[in-house]
Amino acid sequence: xxxxxxxxxITTLPDSSQTTTAPRESHxxxxxxxxxxxxxxxxxxxxxxxxxGRTIIDGCGGAAVSIIxxxxxxxxxxxxxxxxxxxxxxxxxxxxxxxxxxxxxxLDGNPHGFEKVFLCSSGSEATETTMKLAKQCAFEKxxxxxxxxxxxxxxxxxxxxxxxxxxxNLARKEGFxxxxxxxxxxxxxxxxxxxxxxxETEDQYATRLIQELDDEFKxxxxxxVLMFTAETVGGATxxxxxxxxxxxxxxxxxxxxxxxxxxxxxxMCGVGRTGTFYAFEQEGIVPDIVTIxxxxxxxxxxxxxxxxxxxxxxxFRKNSKPFNHGHTYESHATACRAALAVQKIVRRDHLIExxxxxxxxxxxxxxxxxxxxxxxxxxxxxxxxxxxxxVKCKDTKESFPPELRYGIQVQRFIHDLGVDVYPGAGTVDxxxxxxxxxxxxxxxxxxxVRHICSVVRQAVLEMEAxxx
Length: 468
Ligand code: PMP
Hints:
This protein is of the alpha/beta class. Helices cover 36% and strands 16% of the residues. The strands form three sheets. A seven-stranded mixed sheet has the order 4-10-9-8-7-5-6, sandwiched between helices. It holds the Pfam family Aminotran_3.
């Protein structure tokens, strides 16, 4: 038998159904120091089964993570087999078979010109990696004065120091003022519902945003900016912020003009969530670097990826320089095997097409079921990535008082009714962007979509009865 091959195929997993004892709260090392979180014991498809006997319909895939649903045996078996065969080899010394196959899968027949992939363990690491990649790229090009990053307001790129500096979700930065990388500034996001003027066309709005970016590049100094970072479709902060037509074409043009790298963060909106593998495929542009996470491992592995365009790779190639960066757990074999298994299922079962189709059903259901709701100001998104924004007054778009945390209350109410949606938070001014996010697994059925929407409607109407 060839070295590294399994002696016998593994066909069954050890029975884990006995491990239903709920861990004590003190076992958790997380932020929930002051509250007890529900404990999911198992999951199947779109359902989570809690230790208290409740069943929860997962209407947001956790945080837009579970794209093929829970409890997938194919993925579990593949991961199990890989663990028996080889779980880990140091990434500085070896490229494991699953890491190689996963990169191949991502780059195969790739029409976008990405040449290299860096596999890491989270979206935050992917952002950090991208920041360092851009910096070394400038260094290799003989442009050491490029030190500055530009990102957008109402953005989230991760919780580690560098990624937090790029992020502008104020709630998640509270208590950390003064920390982080200092050379970062921010421009307005394409948040039409709140910020497009009433006398402005979509085209004029996009032009105004591009002008603001141009002004910011010039203010900093076009020779000093390394990279512009943006979520193609904004996720967690203000809820499914979709760009106006032409916005990203304008951004691309500007970055090219000044030699500034364009990084699109698709950790939340990528891997089919918006109906195409990359959300940027709907924008008619290609970034220099794109990061993916969440749905990449589909919840079966902690994995994210940085895809790097030939244009950037060539800079390193020319100087025969490796990227001076690494993590012990990058390209982890079982994580790669799990992600590959998830992605093969997505491709085989045409789940990205399904995300697009179910997204249309979700959009239509939300619009019809929430039509009577007085606090629903906007419904937006793409594919199975939809947000509902709440306002106190539809005419003025006046928000509820921030201390009411209306969107979060709605989310909790929905959870009590047996459905999970993802909560939104305050934004640049602490108010606008009060929302919930709905992002079910792509395997969701029309009936389940209708059920999720009807529960959302019930919760919103009951909230309105109290607060409006
Ligand atoms: N970028 C975006 C767009 C995200 O939504 C997130 C997570 N919400 C991150 C980066 C950070 O990913 P992680 O939590 O895996 O570190």
